Amino acid sequence: MKEKKLVLRTCVCSKEVCEKKDLFRIVRTPEMSVVVDLKGKVNGRGAYLKKDKDIILKAQKSKVLDKKLEVEVPAAIYDELLGLL
Description:
The chain is α+β, with helices and mostly antiparallel strands. Helix content is 31%, strand content 26%. It has helices at 53-62, 64-69, 75-84, and strands spanning 8-10, 17-19, 23-28, 34-37, 45-50. The protein has a 3-stranded antiparallel β-sheet with strand order 4-3-5. Strand 3 and strand 4 form a beta hairpin. The longest helix has 10 residues, at 53-62.
């Protein structure tokens, strides 16, 4: 039986390389809206954040997602991420 490939991604805030399942994917869609992508299938520019309260709060304070996604990320996105923890 074939082994599943280990998929690694880098957190934009902590620069830590983690398994994809340990990260949230935040996407800027072609319509310039920002959404949390739980399935990993949404079209658009994506950035990954570690599933950690401190990392999410640090990302909100430093506005690292705004820079990576090239659009202003609403506070509701950070609230949604904290709610998903």
